[in-house]
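We modelled the chain as a single entity of 295 amino acids. Its sequence is:
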Amino acid sequence: MQREQLADFLRRRREAIRPAEVGIADGPRRRTTGLRREEVAMLAGMSVDYVVRLEQGRSSQPSTQLLGALARALRLSDDERDHLFHLAGHRPPPADGVARLARAGLMRMLDLLGDTPAMVLSGLGEVLAQNRVAVLLAGDHTGFSGDQRYVVYRWFTDPAARAVSPPEEQEYHSRRLVADLRAAAGRRSGDPTFAGLVDRLRDASGDFRRLWAEHEVAVRRADRKTMLHPRVGRLLMDCETLVTPDQGQQLLVLTPADDETRERLELLRVLGVEEFSTGATDMPVRYEPKGQNRS
């Protein structure tokens, strides 16, 4: 761990970011052109004291999870992220479709979307980042580990994952998840991570085995789906998926499909602001965000 170099790098990256880039108002009383330490701590989900100690070269070695949170908060590029990991004495995460960190450009797009729910997913359907409204809508999906990281694995192995989808839509959703995974199979031939996920799904779910054997193929791009939210009720959402050129990561954007859903989503935003102001942090709902083509 190169403490002095790590401290210098973190300070300079913090000072280089304009608050507006991360959705923070740039008021007239701001004395610095970059972010404050408190703002970095808020964005990264860690204590201000630890950010201070990192920037002063007095901290213990940060974990890879903490480094990932800092990389997202500071909107680091892939090269900057790898440099951060090296300075902290860790091996950088793999630069492939199952990388654990959302790309800096996609993180900036999350910020720009503002009150529109959006999230970044890996090529295998792991949620890498969400904006605040997406967390209000869907719960925080970035803390899973093991195979539970993957939306498709939770859908076929955890009954709770299907609870937010009406029963009449679940078979369609299952088919589209498997068809998209089949499309990924052609792109990821020889990838042991992908092959292992499919093998474990086949062992864990007879429903998945049945659909996988049908060999349907469809890449997700757009879809309309119904979500059953425990606080604001039924939501009809349009889902648009933007894919990076190498198809390694995706930006999923969710917009209300009708006026009633728009009003309920606005109510959810208001409830979220009220909870934030009172310190409430419970998020009881999970949503499985894999938008697909409806043929």
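As a brief sanity check on the tokenised model: The chain has two domains: 3-87, 104-278. Confidence is low (pLDDT under 50) at residues 276-295.
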